[in-house]
Design a protein that fits this description.
Helix content is 30%, strand content 27%. The protein has 437 residues and is of the alpha/beta class. Bound molecules: shikimate-3-phosphate (S3P).
């Protein structure tokens, strides 16, 4: 993909459905009793992995455009798959699925791409084992093998070592089949889509955010109710267009129907701290999730400091954020972001390395990075290391570069945002793309 420095971005676009909410809707619909209809579902590499898993489990589904219909037969309606389930590159698929299948009493092997096999799995394996789940990993990684566990599972009281919605969701799904309520204590405000969706489906989920942040699930006596919902636009995909609008001089862009769940809006807070001109209108609720239109006007940004809970609330947005910081006036410091080393790539080392390749002034630290901004980046060729978010963030940097940015192996963006290039072109960006999908 070649992104040229170009004219101002103008106009309004909608975003594809949120990746996290789509994953959950697909899987939870398979656990429900009855027909679920999910509109604006994200159709991309990672959600296709979840849909493949449904097929392997004997659950019928139909996709017409972005409308997904799933025939759920309750948790007891899932069949043991005949072969290992291929979760592709999707950590959300493997971590949520292992919890759901543990709770459904399904024996299975869950595996994925070489990239997925490098991701840490002990964070789900150990607490599931504490619940009595017969589960093994290979040196703490995939493939994961689920054997026959004694039922019901043991109720769990557990403090998560890291703020992770995947771990929390995995354990809540297993807890559907526990002998009593399960309580999870979390070190930070990870996304709460699972809690919201399970409540809509009839489960009792309580939470507290006083001195300690906790969530408690009571195993439901009845089956989960099917879903009738529309997935909000993906804040994490919007992030690239937001930064594109802010850094391309003269731009004025509106993103319509973006999910504004407060556990996901850290980037908006960070950009506002940097002086960004952002206006939110048409706020409403969709499927128990806040949504709204986000309008952004290009302008001067200044460096800032990011640490603590804000890191959790923008955990997927650091590649996009770093591009804004590389073009801001002054210094930006990111701390407490060690989790970035466990994403699709080591998003500290690789992000710093590839930002330097296009001329940014970046220094890696143990748990983050320091960036000194410049008025424009020289540009160059980058390797996204099989990380969709790095590919899109660095592509966007091309819009405010001297000679443009060439993204190698750019097809990786189809994992989460297959319409990235058409959406940017709709706003007026000049992009050449040499891959089909
Ligand atoms: C996700 C949770 C986050 C996030 C990922 C999606 C989810 O991962 O980075 O893209 O849908 O629950 P962690 O739970 O590992 O923080």
């Amino acid at each position: 993909m070649i992104v040229k420095p170009g004219k101002a971005l103008q106009g309004a676009v909608t975003l594809p459905g949120d990746k996290s909410i789509s994953h959950r809707a697909i899987l939870f619909a398979a656990l429900a009793a009855g027909e679920s209809v999910i509109d604006n579902v994200l159709v991309s590499g990672v959600t296709e992995a979840m849909l493949r898993a449904l097929t392997a489990l004997g659950v019928a589904w139909r996709l017409e455009g972005t409308r997904l219909t799933v025939q759920g037969h309750g948790r007891s309606g899932l069949q043991a798959p005949a072969a290992p389930i291929d979760c592709g590159n999707s950590a959300t698929t493997i971590r949520l699925l292992v919890g759901a299948l543990a709770g459904a009493g399904v024996t299975a092997v869950l595996d994925g791409s070489p990239g997925l096999r490098r991701r840490p799995m002990l964070r789900v394996v150990e607490p599931l084992q504490q619940m009595g789940v017969a589960l093994t990993a290979v040196a703490g990684r995939a493939p994961l093998t689920l054997g026959a566990s004694p039922y019901p599972l043991q109720a769990l009281t557990y403090t998560l070592p890291v703020a992770s919605a995947q771990v929390k969701s995995c354990l809540l799904l297993a807890a559907l089949a526990a002998a009593g309520p399960t309580t999870l204590v979390e070190p930070g405000p990870s996304r709460d889509h699972t809690e919201r969706m399970l409540r809509k489906m009839g489960a009792r989920v309580e939470e507290g955010s006083g001195e300690e942040r906790w969530v408690r699930l009571y195993p439901p006596a009845a089956e989960l109710r099917p879903l009738q919902m529309t997935v909000p636009g993906d804040m994490s995909s919007a992030a690239f267009l937001m930064v594109a609008a802010l850094i391309t001089p003269g731009s004025l862009v509106t993103l319509r129907g973006v999910g504004l769940n407060p556990t996901r809006t850290g980037l908006l807070d960070a950009l506002r701290r940097m002086g960004a001109d952002i206006t939110i209108t048409h706020e409403t609720e969709m499927a128990g999730e806040p949504v709204g239109d986000v309008a952004l006007r290009a302008g001067e940004l200044r460096g800032t400091e990011i640490s603590g809970d804000l890191v959790v609330r923008m955990i997927d947005e650091f590649p996009a954020f770093a591009v804004a910081a590389a073009l801001a006036e002054g210094q930006t410091v990111v701390r407490d972001a060690l989790e970035l080393r466990h994403k699709e790539s080591d998003r500290i080392t690789v992000l710093c390395q590839e930002l330097r390749a296009i001329g940014a002034d970046v220094t890696e630290t143990a748990d983050g990075f320091v960036i000194v901004g410049k008025p424009a980046l020289p540009g160059g060729t980058i390797n996204p290391h099989q990380d969709h978010r790095l590919a899109m963030a660095l592509a966007v940097a091309g819009l405010c570069s001297v000679k443009g940015v060439v993204v190698q192996e750019a097809e990786i963006i189809t994992e989460s945002f297959p319409t990235f290039v058409p959406k940017l072109r709709e706003l007026g960006a000049e992009i050449e793309q040499q891959f089909d999908r």
